[in-house]
Amino acid sequence: MQPTIRELIKEKKQARSSNSRIEKTMPKVFFLMAAFSILVTIGIVYTLLIETFYFFTQVSFVDFITGTEWYPFFGNDPSFGIWPLVSGTFTIAAIAMMVAVPLGLSSAVYLSEYASERNRKIIKPILEVLAGVPTVVYGLFALTFVTPLLQSFIPTLPIFNALSPGIVVGIMIIPQVASLSQEAMNAVPQAMRDGAFALGATRLEVALKIVIPGSLSGIISSLVLALSRAIGETMIVATAAGSTPNMGFNPTESIQTMTAYIVQVSMGDATFGSTIYYSIYAVGMLLFVFTLLMNIIANYFSRRFREVY
Amino acid sequence: MKEKRIVINENKTNRRVAYNKIGRVLFFLSTAFGMIVLATLLIRIFTQGIGYLNWNFLTNYASRRPEDAGIKAAIAGTVWVMGITIPVSLILGVGTAIYLEEYAPRNRLTRFIELNISNLAGVPSVVFGLLGLTVFVRFFAMGRSILAGGLTMSLLILPIIVVAAKEAIRSIPQEQYEAAYAMGATKWQIIRTVVLPAATPGILTGAILSLSRAVGETASLLMIGAMAFIAYLPDSIYSSFTVLPIQIFNWAGRPQAAFQAVAAAGSIVLLVILILMNSLAIVIRNKYTKRY
Amino acid sequence: MKNQESEKLIYSVKDFNLWYGDTHALKDISLDIPHKQVTAIIGPSGCGKSTFIKTLNRMVELVPSVKMKGDINYKESNIFDSKSSVETLRTEVGMVFQKPNPFPKSIYDNIAYGPRIHGIKNKTILNEVVEKSLKGAALWDEVKDRLNENAFGLSGGQQQRLCIARALAVEPDVILMDEPTSALDPLSTAKVEDLIQELKKDYSIIIVTHNMQQAARISDKTAFFLNGEVVEFDATEKMYSNPNDKRTDDYISGKFG
Amino acid sequence: MKNQESEKLIYSVKDFNLWYGDTHALKDISLDIPHKQVTAIIGPSGCGKSTFIKTLNRMVELVPSVKMKGDINYKESNIFDSKSSVETLRTEVGMVFQKPNPFPKSIYDNIAYGPRIHGIKNKTILNEVVEKSLKGAALWDEVKDRLNENAFGLSGGQQQRLCIARALAVEPDVILMDEPTSALDPLSTAKVEDLIQELKKDYSIIIVTHNMQQAARISDKTAFFLNGEVVEFDATEKMYSNPNDKRTDDYISGKFG
Amino acid sequence: DGGNTEDTGSEDTETEGTAEEGTGDISGSVQIDGSSTVFPILEAVGEEFSIAYPDVQATIGISGTGGGMERFIAGETDIANASRPMKDEEAELLEEAGIEFTEFQIALDGLSVVVNSENDWVDYLTLEELAMIWLDSSDVETWADVREGWPDEEILLFSPGTDSGTYDYFDEVILDGEQIDRQATLSEDDNVLVQGTAGSLNGLAYFGYAYYAENQDTVKIVPIENSEGEAVTPDDQTVQDGSYEPLSRPLFIYVRNDSVSEDDAVYEFTKYTLEMAGEMASEVGYVALDDAIYEENLELLESLR
Ligand SMILES: Nc1ncnc2c1ncn2[C@@H]1O[C@H](COP(=O)(O)OP(=O)(O)OP(=O)(O)O)[C@@H](O)[C@H]1O
Ligand SMILES: Nc1ncnc2c1ncn2[C@@H]1O[C@H](COP(=O)(O)OP(=O)(O)OP(=O)(O)O)[C@@H](O)[C@H]1O
Ligand SMILES: [Mg+2]
Ligand SMILES: [Mg+2]
Ligand SMILES: O=P([O-])([O-])[O-]
């Protein structure tokens, strides 16, 4: 045996110092890319903060945070109390969750515990299309189909109301709940199920007593993420919920959410530098804080769920 | 000899078995509900919009006459915006994922970056719209251009791509790394020859899914002013633009009832594009998973 | 080691075949498994040991692609008969797996799981059952002061005995064990082996093992599987001293596997 | 089976210790591993066999929590010396794993992987290397007509020989093997065992196995590990016929593990 | 930003001919933004223009009159559409920015007040009643508060958003600049207003005539009593002859003088607009001006070259 290859390799090794240069620079390049996400966050926080700061030079922070009237457009006597927008946002989110939690979780259980591999492969992508339908399309669907349908049950329901877009937002986030929860359920080791089956448990008992408890933190984190998506949803609400910032949690009233307010203003294009212009940043800031909180909570739970096994 | 304490009652067992059957039906119906809604939505849109769906619809610019209205500019705008979004988000996203999965030490900074990315993924698109408006449109004076729109979209989907790419990289079995290390490969060689080839299907799947989100995205682009009548094809990244969902939104806001149907026709096109993208992603996912 | 009682059968398998999709995993298996004895199943990896043992409590049906042909009689009645439910069969036939798989619950709740799903809620009875089962699995002394701690805190060997205790809690007739000691250290292995010897007074035990010495130590009868077939089934002593089949001899002497 | 040459050493390990975090996985290991012979490492699960063998090509350092103390000399120089790069060491010391781990590439590209990452692009040379390595791994005849097919299409045994061929392609001096046949069927096992006998003419081979008969069949020297220590290290014949240590005897006779 | 594109070299003398033949050898871009009310007219013009001048890129945004003005002031656009006359502040800002501009009236719009089509009690409304209904400061909550005998049901109000020229105009002529009712639903999307009214028995809305014209079967128009005391319904006739007052209003475009003089594309586009506006206005549901006014406008434009 003549070690030709070995000699060749040795030769090449000496000839290549560029190799080690690449080896040293690549991690730095990739680090910069990863750090970019922080830059984006800083960008978001910075822009929101600066303009929010201007807003609070014009509107009292206390009024903003405690006020129950939101009439920014009334030139003579505007009021900037955030609560109507917050209550509108949470009304929508609550309705959406009432739709998405039972349906999404049931779908997750079905997909993870009952469906055959083949059915799962067919059904899951179909459900995921629900999450991919553009929100403009959903908005029109809510306004021109769901609302009239609801009106045939509740004749007094006004054309713009929280109920219809709330339901549609809920439908939109079903796949989010279903997919993520199903993945969490999948992560419960088959050995756990086998243990229960071997004791004579039925599938339902395995699902309810082994799988769901075992994936609880993953499920909760999927729900929190879905909630944050519902809070951030814009076009459906802007199209079908009206734009009256009403205080309270009445689903049959027309409401306005934080996101809908932001688009409303930016489409009307409030004059740069006006109080209204700054107000969208203050609302945006609050929205950012809300979703940040949601994500931190979701993260906490998903971390817990990873550590179980 | 043992005496039996646990008496198994056949009746009780039968009841448990019956509950299981009921559960199965309920869970299935819940799953079916989502699909029924989807079907309803599709049927509605199709019956509404099919009348306007023809070749002209794809090749005409928007028009005041519903029968002449088309989506040429919107499609072109979408393609141009994606032309910015795809490379920017893919390069940044995959690079970030490679750093986090392959190089990052397990320390606070890394955890902070990861937490930060998952937070960004949850930030509502209107907030990205605000960022785009303030930073790209105003501060960098890009105006209401394709560039501003594309960059805003890139930031919007960047976190999703990072997460998908991370998952794809993480699912590469340790044995593959071991095989390469044992041959004397260096880190970067392993990334090039093992990690990227193996993660590509997963990255592609995630990228397609997040791009389909970008294609349907409306609110943030509305905020940076993409709502406009445009009867030309963009010729540079500084051109004004409109995109399909915004064109649909625009039509839906018209007084003439016929434009509602045109909007529905636009929705069909958008949905078909999205379903095609989703299917492509699924095909890639099914074709390339479980290879090890 | 044989006695009169051993002639009573707990399982009688006849011409049983099983496929995973197109893989023919069990081929014409016929075996009579005696009551209240330890029956060992040995054979090289992939020969169908796990498949066979999982068929005995119909756990194998959880794999969607499975197709089966043939009869398995458990106490005189066919387990595939639609009359009796799988749940009942699995209650009478306990199972212990290769990797200990306690639930992420307290030690107490692990043991009480089986009785509870069968509707037993009475605290006194449950307490009794837990104590008896843990004693039966030779674990009581080690854990009696920490019944409410999470089962994941136990060592591997303890977890495996916990799983055995969990199976005992519903008072089965048969205990199936699929390589119950392969993930355990020598000391824990010895404890589990002792336990098996103890249990066979009350239960029929069927155990899969890849450790031929283990089979020799603890079993009364041994079945040697190869490529989905039963090559030889006989009294353990006979198999190890004087096998009928050349392949059995090769396997036992370590020529392959 | 011993001859003169065997006294030449390829590795010389002295008082080597290794920790995974707080787990002391290797304790004061001292071993002299001979050149161009087969050295087998046996011992029960978790005793540190894999850890030890992965230390020899510094693969163990990929585990972030690893801490090490002591010396390992490879051909007279300490492998932890900063002078020589890990990459060079790993080029000279090939490794084959328990589970065959071909790359999801063509058979050809799998073999050419090593030469290529070391900068060899010349097609003629690569062709030669591929053929030579596959012949060396006794796989050439089976795959020569489908070099461009994906390696995943090969059977388990073929995949394992492919991995051996891949290791041969960079012409190493040593080949480390971590339970290379434990995932294989008897026939494939026999083929790989034959191959190892063949390879030892040109290479020093260190093989981890849980199959004691296998160690007996193919190795010249055997080291018995227990709980991170070397209990005994001697000529294989001696170990199996007349071990010095009671624990070795117990293990070899199947009392535990 | 927008207006300034390279000169194609075509001189003043040639432009007349080019427009007629529509050979469109002019290239460049024109940035237009502003009123959503005016948008349909400009869109129609833009559509025709893009056929005649395929190399000119005309972008017509929909930011509302206020938004359009803002971009005009910022120098981002060449033309601002407005559904109300420019405000004094806006003119001042333009002067500060050194931007000279010219106002062209291009059409008329009758602001239409509508109710639900099932509403059988409202026969007409007076200006006072209209003001009472819409003012925040008045106590009118229900129809019965407006006129004796009307149902005692709360009125649901739908109004264009405060950034729109439509809102500004209504606020000025009907409410005298006072606060509009806080309970009103404000939307920049006029279709929302149509749907709101069509969907609520007690709905009341106002918006541009075009939106009424297209939705006559879902909403019902309310005649408004003018200063002469006659209840008038808006239509081409009453809007153009001024008898539907005060709710008919002029629609404008504002054009940068330097863009017109320096940029052929902008000049051609403006000219095209002025030539086509009347026809296009009627086509999309507005009311054309007297031809004479378009003639004057064109002369004014030529004088800017
Ligand atoms: N879920 C499954 N789907 C398809 N084939 C399977 C499945 N489980 C097992 N098999 C195949 O059936 C055969 C028998 O497998 P089984 O697990 O019963 O072997 P075993 O004797 O228990 O092996 P081991 O000692 O490795 O546990 C094998 O060829 C295996 O590949
Ligand atoms: N990555 C790791 N991190 C922490 N501990 C480890 C790691 N790898 C191995 N260990 C521990 O080190 C000890 C030795 O493990 P090693 O894998 O070397 O054993 P082994 O003899 O190869 O066993 P087997 O026969 O099961 O492969 C074990 O106690 C194991 O739990
Ligand atoms: Mg098995
Ligand atoms: Mg090992
Ligand atoms: O969009 P407006 O015409 O109402 O300003």
UniProtKB/TrEMBL annotation, chain A:
Chief site of localization: membrane
Bilayer-crossing regions: 29-56, 80-105, 126-150, 162-185, 206-227, 276-301
Keyword terms of this UniProt record: Cell membrane, Membrane, Phosphate transport, Transmembrane, Transmembrane helix, Transport
Recorded GO MF terms: phosphate transmembrane transporter activity
Domain ABC transmembrane type-1 stretches: 86-298
Domain of life of the native organism: Bacteria
InterPro entries in the cross-refs: MetI-like, MetI-like_sf, Phosphate_PstC
CDD domains attached to this UniProt entry: TM_PBP2
Coiled coil: none
Location(s) in or outside the cell: Cell membrane; Membrane
Keyword Cytoplasm: no
Membrane topology: Multi-pass membrane protein
GO cellular component, one term: plasma membrane
An individual GO BP term: phosphate ion transport
Family: Belongs to the binding-protein-dependent transport system permease family. CysTW subfamily.
General function of this protein: Part of the binding-protein-dependent transport system for phosphate; probably responsible for the translocation of the substrate across the membrane.
Name this protein carries in UniProt: Phosphate transport system permease protein
Native organism: Alkalibacterium olivapovliticus
UniProtKB/TrEMBL annotation, chain B:
Membrane topology: Multi-pass membrane protein
Domain (ABC transmembrane type-1): residue spans on this chain: 75-281
GO cellular component terms attached to this protein's record: plasma membrane
Origin superkingdom: Bacteria
One biological process term in Gene Ontology: phosphate ion transmembrane transport
Residues making up the signal peptide according to the UniProt record: none
Transmembrane stretches, start-end: 25-53, 73-100, 120-140, 146-165, 219-238, 258-284
Keyword tags: Cell membrane, Membrane, Transmembrane, Transmembrane helix, Transport
First-listed, main subcellular location of the protein, grouped into a coarse class: membrane
Keyword Cell membrane tagged: yes
Subcellular location: Cell membrane
Gene Ontology terms for molecular function: phosphate transmembrane transporter activity
Pfam family, one: BPD_transp_1
Coiled-coil zones: none
NCBIfam families cross-referenced by the UniProt entry: 3a0107s02c (TIGR00974)
Family: Belongs to the binding-protein-dependent transport system permease family. CysTW subfamily.
Protein name (record): Phosphate transport system permease protein PstA
Organism: Alkalibacterium olivapovliticus
Record lineage: Bacteria, Bacillati, Bacillota, Bacilli, Lactobacillales
TrEMBL record, chains C, D:
Top-level taxon in the UniProt lineage: Bacteria
GO biological process, one term: phosphate ion transmembrane transport
Annotated protein name in UniProt: Phosphate transport system ATP-binding protein
Membrane topology: Peripheral membrane protein
Function per UniProt: Part of the ABC transporter complex PstSACB involved in phosphate import. Responsible for energy coupling to the transport system.
SUPFAM superfamilies the UniProt entry points to: P-loop containing nucleoside triphosphate hydrolases (SSF52540)
Annotated ABC transporter domain residues: 11-252
GO CC terms in record: plasma membrane
Localization per Swiss-Prot or TrEMBL: Cell inner membrane
GO molecular function: ATP binding; ATP hydrolysis activity; phosphate transmembrane transporter activity
Keywords: ATP-binding, Cell membrane, Membrane, Nucleotide-binding, Phosphate transport, Translocase, Transport
